[in-house]
From TrEMBL:
Non catalytic subunit of RNase H2, an endonuclease that specifically degrades the RNA of RNA:DNA hybrids. Participates in DNA replication, possibly by mediating the removal of lagging-strand Okazaki fragment RNA primers during DNA replication. Mediates the excision of single ribonucleotides from DNA:RNA duplexes. Keywords: Nucleus. It comes from the Eukaryota. The gene is RNASEH2B. Residues 82-212 form the Ribonuclease H2 subunit B wHTH domain. Its main location: nucleus. Belongs to the RNase H2 subunit B family. This is Ribonuclease H2 subunit B.
Length: 236
């Protein structure tokens, strides 16, 4: 699930920020490589991304109070492995096994070390790395093969969620205008996979997104646009 959060209030009030265990941190965006503000829950050791919705004419009910207009910020749990992948791929240029505290290092975004405090870190890393243990210390190396398989699993989980929520992703519907409630049967499996691949691609660099697309055997997007949906359905 996700919850509404008023960023400005937390940023103003440091004592409240620490008491609630919520901390706004600037970390690398694993897709663009640029800085993005994330929310870190110190108590739960959990990472959230912040999605901003711009609404001019709506009121929102948050904690029994009405917030009208302006921006609504939603904090949504995010898999921290996407951020760790950024550093593992970067370190892989040296092509050797390294301890994690030498991999997750960033002068521009020093708060990246918070990622090392995450629970089940070793379990997470098994999805995307080869590991070695020397003198009770773990060393890691990025594995492209494992990563692609992990991303494929993510795509299929996303497809299941899209189907469960009856989200129409048919190729005839332009990506910008997907809508709810249409019978799932009208969508081809490939449309779902392509759409889910697009969603996952927001969290990985383009090169990895292209590799994943090939692995999923998605056809190259054609230059021609699909025909607009016909207003009259033929009965044949």
């Amino acid at each position: 699930g996700h919850f509404g959060v008023d960023c400005t209030e937390y940023l103003k009030d440091a004592s409240k920020k620490m008491k609630s265990g919520l901390m706004f941190v600037k970390l690398v965006n694993p897709c663009s490589g640029e800085g993005t503000i994330y929310l870190f829950n110190m108590c739960l050791q959990q990472l959230f991304e912040i999605k901003v919705f711009k609404e001019k004419h709506h009121s929102w009910f948050i904690n029994q109070s009405v917030q009208s207009g302006g921006l609504l910020h939603f904090a949504t749990p995010m898999d921290p492995l996407f951020l760790l992948l950024h550093y593992l791929r970067k370190a892989d240029k040296e092509g050797k096994f390294q301890p994690l505290d030498q991999v997750v290092v960033d002068d521009m975004f020093p708060n990246c070390i918070l990622l090392l405090k995450l629970p089940d870190l070793e379990k997470l890393l098994r999805h995307v790395t080869e590991e070695k243990e020397i003198d009770k210390k773990k060393y890691y190396k990025y594995s492209k093969e494992k990563t692609i398989k992990w991303l494929e699993k993510k795509v299929h989980q996303t497809v299941s969620a899209l189907k469960t929520n009856n989200i129409n992703v048919s190729a005839r519907v332009q990506a910008a205008t997907f809508f709810f409630g249409d019978p799932v049967s009208s969508d081809k499996e490939e449309d779902y996979i392509r759409y889910a691949h697009g969603l996952i691609s927001d969290y990985i660099p383009k090169e990895l997104s292209d590799d994943l697309s090939k692995y999923l055997k998605l056809p190259e997007p054609s230059a021609s646009l699909p025909n607009p949906p016909s207003k009259v359905r033929s009965c044949d």
